[in-house]
Amino acid sequence: MSSKQQKTRPVRNACRIGTPRIGRRELLTAGAGAALTPFLPILNSRAQANGAPKRFLFCFLDNGTIHSEWKPQGTETNFTFKRILAPLEAHKQDLLVLSGLDLVPEPAPPHSGHPQLLSNVAADLTRFRLSPGITLDQFIANQRKDMTRFGTLELGIVPFGGDDFYTRELLFRGPYEPVPCEPSPYAAFDRIFGARDDATALRLGTKRKSIFNGVSKDLAQLRAELGVEDQALLDRHAESLVELERRFTQGQAACAGPNMGTEQLDFRSMANYQEMAELQTDLMVAALACDATRIGSLVWSGPTSTQTFPWLGDFGNNHHLLSHDPGATEQLIKIGIWYSEQHARLIDKLKAVPEPGGGTLFDSTLILFANPLSDGNAHRKVDLPLILAGGKWHFRTGRYLNFGSTPHGHLLVSIAHAMGVEVDAFGNPETGTGPLSGLEV
Amino acid sequence: MGLRIPSLIVPDLGTWGHSYVELNMRVVAGSPQPLSRRSSTARDRVGALLTGLLLAGVLAGCDAQTNGAGSAGASAGGSATTGVVPGAGGSGTEMTSCTGAVSVAPSPLRRFTHAEYDHAVRALLGTQLELARDFPLDLPAAGFASNRSDPLSLLGVEKLLLAAEALAADAVTRLESLVPCAPAQGDAACARQFFSELSRQAYRRRPSASELEELAQLYAWGESNEGFSLGIQVVIERILQSPHFIYHLERTSGTPVAAQAGADAVAPLTGPSIADRLAAFIWHSIPDATLLDAAERGELDTPAGIAAQAERMLLEPKGRDGVVEFFNQWLDIEKLSITEKNAAVYPTYSDAVRSAMWNETTSFVDFVVREGDARLETLLTSNLALPSAPLAALYGLPPAETLTPMDPLVRSGLLTHPSVLAVHAHADQSSPVKRGAFIRERVMCTPLPDPPPAVNDTPPMINPNATTRERFHQHRADPACASCHSLIDPVGFAFEGYDGMGVHRMLEGNLPIDTTGELLGSDDIDGPFAGAVELTQRFARSQQVRDCMATQWLRYAMRREEGEADACSQQTVRAAFRETGDLRKLVLAIVQSDAFRFKSSKGAP
């Protein structure tokens, strides 16, 4: 599918080199070739003792950080957190704190790093800073074909702000195909846990299925009238119908969603950010716990977040403007601390969910906390503040590692390996092959 | 309730001639009406104007040729105009000969934008629900929401499903006003009549027998489960999810117009496809029965027939939607809803204020374009404002609910509206760069490159001992910045007489504000100016600005950037607008252009 899509999409610049070289088709058709052989054994060798599936969660923050309070002090195994990461102290032994990883090449314009963060392909500046590649979450989902109700689940927390219309897309399922996030926890609840029982779910599914049948026929019929580029658009539409139909006929997950509160708040309002953050986090944990999905993204803001934090103090400006104010270091540290508290809460929640086969949900989850900028004011895209949490079946955690100046693409390869997807490189092959050294158990 | 006549304050405008009296009189001349109603007088007057335009055959250039190719399938012969287009190098006009075959750039498939979807379901079902804001973002093209060549995401398809279900559930609460029978007596025949008509309007063509059969089966399934109402509900869900509804499916008729070797195939659009483009352009919606009937009768096969419908549509109440949406997107005031201000600096900025700002600008443009003199000059220089209660303090006037003249030394046209000034500013200060770049790109069509990679684009810190203008000194001092900022900043500085939310000011702190400057790099309006009012006067007289406006409207109509192959259409449209500066005439010129009436397909089967 994806290789056909790549051929038919209009391509307007040289960034195509960034498309992952090892696609699904190659893996499946490589036969006795090198790609397939190591694949299954590795999957097996890294299966969980408790039989739980592996999960990957991507958490996105923007506007950079304050390195002096973010970077731990000390050595690889003997280090202390400074102010920003202090709230994660209780989980220190479950973390890999990473320094010295760079976006390569460092993207040129100020707000263009976010599509590169998980795709390792520079944004296409001529096309709304969309990515001509695929992001790692989508790639892993494609490779694993878990057949969960949601192949991937993207939840956004008031992801509207941002002062540039063109800098809002973060995740891509293929070249120039953004994967938008669900901004409403209430809509997310209905989509994930909506039907109260199987009978209701199946009845709704039957109706939707007969409507989809007709819509699919319409699409097939129209396809014959159109040129190849337009056909590709309808093909994507038809594929989505198949995917949705599969979800609807799978019935309802056998577990309840989180408590959504009694009052429905305006999910677009920055004033409700704390409540929306809590709800979306709880929904993500519940969705993973119910095995509604195994690959999720929690998008803590749109790129160039303009969120305000009145509960932290009278900061005057919003997050983006503060990140450009050299005099606002203290405010930015406080914002960083608050986000670390939320990250700690997420980990707490995952650790509170027992797995049927023993252990907790956290034991089978790998989280990447990432930011496309280090120094927000200067738009520096090197020495990014990155943290891996969990994934202990693959990674030796409880360490602080500084890679000097290494392309961050290697980290994406490491994550792919942890999730059982063997690739030599991800995204732009010119940033080198292989995983980061020294991460693994 | 009538509009107050603008006061006759006559500023001395020196060399730039046009007095406010003259400009404002044009607005007033069109028998002012309350904003909420149009009188037949106004309508007749506009109608007469438009008819006059048609009779006069204002359109020059390619039109002589495209008239000939109007009937479906006729080949477009080689007649042409090779007019010399003067000046306008900076706005990108190329000398183009309109000889030879019809040439238009490709228009890849696109689907409804948010606004189109909401307007379309309102037209179909009479709903008040606006659900499209929950859909994934529209993809812009050339500055306007377009969704061209943009694949629907999985979430997008699911949101369409959920919206269809919510709209159908909402619609059947008003069943008696929707179906052509008493709902209690509803039967299969009544249902069939209902969904035949609904699908015709939704698909912008007559449904086929097999389509009606499928709808009948869905109705029967729903009816057998929970009766007539559910049968209707399921049918509505089906129609709203059809690609025939969601996409703008543009069909061509007849033999493709012979193209030069290697060029893309170009053919005239069918009547229903022209109807679809007209409705998307002028109403931001779908065609009504009148328009579809006209298409079926072949009336949209000629430029004159298209213009007649366009003229009618512009004056229908729905015409407001198309006009408002142009300015909403062109001026970026759609971003007001996400434009936050620093409460310490702008304590009076509130939801009520920003929504009043938006209402002011949209009421003004609708009045000028559809009821007033429709002149670009009026839009750019009129001192009419709508100081409704939330804005009264901003203007320092008693509240009024009608367009009211302001001090012409302070307010001069759209670019001095608080909505525009507030959007193109920072949260805690004005922004000469944002304002200047916006005007350069959107009003003058000056292409601006991205800033250099390593640039620090942070506005200089607020400093009580320096004005904003002084703080931006770096742009002139650093040669790397100066090449672009010498174009941008003087334009922005002219608007320093308005703070970050558009309030007029003479001082910044205790420091006097300097709004003088020199305009550089234009085609026809370079030179020193004294401030925003004089600058907007100059824009109003500029051919470059007129050409730019024509281009912006063409982009809006086509929902795409113009390509090289559109040069002839662009030239024709510009020529028509240059003569009159009349936006209603511009709309008519656009719908008769080749770009609007023909379609070019890459790789068609």
Describe this structure in words.
- The complex is a heterodimer of chains A (441) and B (605).
- Helices cover 34% and strands 12% of the residues of chain A.
- With 441 residues, chain A is α/β, with parallel strands linked by helices.
- In chain A, a hairpin with a 4-residue loop joins strand 2 and strand 3 (79-80).
- Chain B is mainly alpha-helical and 605 residues long.
- Chain B has three domains: 33-107 and 254-316 and 546-601, no CATH class; 110-248, no CATH class; 324-541, no CATH class.
- Chain B has a two-stranded antiparallel sheet with strand order 1-4. A two-stranded antiparallel sheet of chain B has the order 2-3.
- In chain B, strand 2 and strand 3 form a beta hairpin.
- The longest helix of chain B is centred in the middle third of the chain and has 21 residues, at 351-371.
- Classes of the chains: A alpha/beta (441), B mainly alpha (605).
- Chains A and B meet through strand 7, helix 8 and helix 9 of A and helix 5, helix 8 and helix 9 of B.
What's the layout of helices and strands?
The complex is a heterodimer of chains A (441) and B (605).
Chain A: H1 2-8, H2 24-29, H3 39-45, E1 55-60, H4 67-70, E2 73-74, E3 79-80, E4 95-102, H5 114-117, H6 136-144, E5 153-156, E6 172-174, E7 177-178, H7 185-193, H8 198-223, H9 228-248, H10 273-289, E8 295-299, H11 319-323, H12 329-351, E9 365-370, E10 386-390, E11 399-407, H13 409-418
Parallel strand pairs in A: 1-8, 1-9, 4-11, 5-8
Antiparallel strand pairs in A: 2-3, 4-10, 6-7, 9-10
Helix pairs in contact in A: 7-10, 8-9, 10-12
Chain B: H1 20-29, H2 40-56, H3 63-68, E1 110-111, H4 114-125, E2 140-141, E3 144-145, H5 154-171, H6 175-178, H7 188-203, H8 209-226, H9 228-241, H10 243-246, E4 247-248, E5 265-268, H11 271-283, H12 289-296, H13 303-315, H14 319-330, H15 351-371, H16 376-381, E6 384-385, H17 389-395, E7 404-405, H18 418-423, H19 432-443, H20 468-471, H21 474-477, H22 479-493, E8 507-508, E9 511-512, E10 517-519, E11 527-529, H23 532-541, H24 543-558, H25 567-580, H26 583-591, H27 594-597, E12 598-601
Antiparallel strand pairs in B: 1-4, 2-3, 5-12, 6-7, 8-9, 10-11
Helix pairs in contact in B: 2-13, 5-9, 7-8, 7-9, 8-9, 11-12, 11-13, 11-14, 13-26, 14-15, 19-22, 24-25, 24-26, 25-26
